[in-house]
C-alpha cells in the first residue's frame, strides 16, 4: 500500500461559512473527513486512513478521551489472539497466555519510566483504571479494618476525581472507617499554583484534630473539567507532610502526557492503555513501588491468588485477555510515527490548543486553563446564552450535538465557577458550560469547524437549553 500523502488542510479562519443546513440544523459537511489527512506526519509506508476506516463516516469524533480508538492493525493482532484461544484453549492457557502477558508488561516498561531489563513484578495489567482503583482502595480498606490505621484517619481526594473512583473511595475506605476530604479546586484555572495552594490547605485540614492523612488520591489529568495536575509537586508535598500512601489516577495520561512513575514517586500509579495508547478496550496498567506490590490482590479471587498481582490479574477465570496481549503491537504502531509517542503527544497538544483557540475566538469565550495545563484535550468555554444551568442541561446538549449535528463532544456544566476579584459577570454572557475537545492522529480541522458551526447556529437561532425536554 502506498504511503498516504496529506493534502493541505482547510484554514481555521473563524470567517469560514457554516456548512449547509438540513431541516434547520447544521449538517456535518466533513467531505469524507475520515479519508482526509490523519496526522501532520503520516506513517512511514502505511496508509493511515485505512487504520481508522472503521470509524463511522460523517461523524466528528472529538471525544477520544472517553473511549480512545484502536487502529485496524492492532485490532487484527487482537483477532489473531482471540482465534488462537478459540482454536485450542488448553494450549493457549498453558503455553501462550502468561508468556504473552509478560511480553506486554516488559514492552510497556520503557514508556512509563522503567527499564525493560528490570523485574516486571511491579507492573500488572488490569481491565481499566477503575479496576486498579478498586485494587488499591480495597488494600487501603483492609488497613483500616485490621487496625493498621485508626478509624477517622483521612483519605484525601480531589473534588474533580473521576466519579467511579470517588464512589470506590466511599464504598471501600469510608465504609471501613476513613474520613474523606475533598480538595476544592477552582475552575477556570490560571496556573498550577491554584491547585497546589488548595492541596496544601486540605492536607493541613486532614492532619488536624488528631487525625492523619493516610492516603492521597491524585488525578494526573482530571476528567471533567480536564486539567493536567502537577502530580510530582503534589506527591512531594505528601512526602513532606507524612502521608502514608499516594495513589495517582492517571487514567488519561499515557500517550497524552509524559509518564515516569519513578520520577513521580507515588506508591501506586495507574493509566488506561486504550484511551491514548492505541490499545483496544479494555486494558490498563497498575504500577506499585517496591515493597507494595505483594500486599495487593485482585478483587476477583481465582487460582493465582497469593502469587503476586501480575499473576493474579493475569488469570481471573475464563475471559478474553486479548486486549492485554497486543500492547507490543500498539507500540509498533506508535513507533511508525516521527518521534514515536512523544511526537504524537507534541503534535496532538499543539493541534488541540490551536483548535481550542479557534473555537473560543468564534464563540467569544476563553479556554478553561492555560495551554501548559493541557495535554491532548482542552476545555473551551461555550456561549453563556446557551443557558447551561445543570449537569442535565450539559448531557442534553451533548445528545443534541451527537444526534442532530453528528458531533461527539463532552459538555461540562461548571457548578464551581470561580469569580475573579472584580468579576461580577452574570446573565446571558456568563460562561457556565464548556466543551471538552480532544485531538488524536485521526482528527482533521474540518471536524472542529462542524462543532464551531453547530454552536454558532444554535446561538443565532436563539436556542436555550431550557427548550430541551
In words, what does this structure look like?
With 469 residues, the chain is an alpha/beta fold. The protein has 15 helices and 14 strands. The protein has helices spanning 48-51, 64-67, 72-87, 89-108, 129-145, 163-174, 192-206, 231-240, 261-264, 309-313, 322-325, 327-334, 340-363, 391-405, 445-460; strands at residues 21-22, 25-26, 60-61, 123-126, 154-158, 179-183, 213-219, 245-249, 268-272, 284-288, 377-381, 407-408, 410-413, 433-438. The strands form 4 sheets. The protein has a 7-stranded mixed β-sheet with strand order 4-10-9-8-7-5-6, sandwiched between helices. The chain has a 3-stranded antiparallel β-sheet with strand order 11-14-13. Strand 5, helix 6 (163-174) and strand 6 (179-183) form a beta-alpha-beta unit. Helix 3 packs antiparallel against helix 4 (89-108) and helix 7 runs parallel beside helix 8 (231-240).
Search tags:
469 residues; alpha/beta; 7-stranded mixed sheet; 3-stranded antiparallel sheet; 15 helices; 37% helix; disordered N terminus
Amino acid at each position: 500500500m502506498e504511503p498516504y500523502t496529506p493534502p493541505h488542510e482547510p484554514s481555521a479562519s473563524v470567517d469560514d461559512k457554516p456548512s449547509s443546513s438540513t431541516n434547520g440544523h447544521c449538517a456535518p459537511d466533513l467531505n469524507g473527513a475520515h479519508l482526509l489527512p490523519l496526522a501532520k506526519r503520516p506513517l512511514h509506508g502505511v496508509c493511515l486512513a485505512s487504520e481508522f476506516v472503521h470509524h463511522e463516516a460523517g461523524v466528528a469524533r472529538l471525544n477520544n478521551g472517553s473511549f480512545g480508538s484502536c487502529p485496524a492493525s492492532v485490532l487484527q493482532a487482537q483477532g489473531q489472539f482471540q482465534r488462537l484461544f478459540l482454536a485450542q484453549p488448553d494450549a493457549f492457557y498453558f503455553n501462550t497466555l502468561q508468556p504473552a502477558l509478560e511480553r506486554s508488561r516488559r514492552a510497556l516498561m520503557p514508556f512509563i519510566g522503567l527499564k525493560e531489563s528490570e523485574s516486571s513484578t511491579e507492573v500488572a495489567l488490569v481491565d481499566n483504571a477503575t479496576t486498579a482503583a478498586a485494587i488499591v482502595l480495597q488494600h487501603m480498606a483492609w488497613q483500616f479494618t485490621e487496625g493498621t490505621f485508626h478509624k477517622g484517619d483521612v483519605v484525601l481526594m480531589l473534588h474533580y476525581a473521576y466519579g467511579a473512583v470517588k464512589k470506590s473511595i466511599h464504598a471501600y475506605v469510608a465504609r471501613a472507617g476513613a474520613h474523606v476530604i475533598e480538595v476544592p479546586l477552582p475552575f477556570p484555572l490560571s496556573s498550577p499554583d491554584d491547585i497546589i495552594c488548595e492541596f496544601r490547605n486540605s492536607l493541613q485540614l486532614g492532619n488536624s484534630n488528631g487525625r492523619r492523612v493516610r492516603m492521597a488520591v491524585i488525578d494526573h489529568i482530571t476528567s471533567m473539567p480536564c486539567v493536567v495536575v502537577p502530580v510530582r509537586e503534589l506527591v512531594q508535598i505528601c512526602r513532606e507532610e507524612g502521608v502514608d500512601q499516594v495513589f495517582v489516577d492517571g487514567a488519561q495520561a499515557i500517550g497524552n502526557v509524559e509518564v515516569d512513575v519513578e520520577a513521580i514517586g507515588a506508591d501506586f500509579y495507574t493509566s488506561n492503555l486504550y484511551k491514548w495508547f492505541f490499545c483496544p478496550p479494555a486494558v490498563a496498567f497498575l504500577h506499585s513501588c517496591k515493597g507494595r506490590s505483594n500486599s495487593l490482590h485482585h478483587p476477583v479471587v481465582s487460582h493465582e491468588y497469593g502469587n503476586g498481582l501480575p499473576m493474579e490479574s493475569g488469570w481471573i477465570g475464563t475471559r478474553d485477555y486479548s486486549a492485554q496481549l497486543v500492547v507490543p503491537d500498539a507500540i509498533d504502531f506508535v513507533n511508525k510515527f516521527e518521534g514515536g509517542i512523544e511526537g504524537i503527544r507534541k503534535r496532538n497538544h499543539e493541534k488541540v490548543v490551536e483548535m481550542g483557540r479557534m473555537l473560543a475566538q468564534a464563540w467569544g469565550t476563553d479556554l478553561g486553563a492555560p495551554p501548559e495545563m493541557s495535554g491532548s484535550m482542552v476545555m473551551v468555554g461555550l456561549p453563556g446564552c446557551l443557558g447551561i444551568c445543570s449537569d442535565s442541561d450539559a448531557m442534553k446538549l451533548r445528545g443534541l450535538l451527537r444526534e442532530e449535528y453528528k458531533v461527539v463532544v463532552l459538555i461540562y456544566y461548571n457548578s464551581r465557577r470561580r469569580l475573579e476579584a472584580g468579576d461580577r459577570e452574570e446573565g446571558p454572557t456568563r460562561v457556565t458550560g464548556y466543551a471538552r475537545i480532544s485531538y488524536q492522529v485521526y482528527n482533521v480541522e474540518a471536524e472542529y469547524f462542524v462543532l464551531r458551526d453547530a454552536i454558532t447556529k444554535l446561538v443565532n437561532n436563539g436556542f436555550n437549553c431550557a427548550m430541551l425536554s
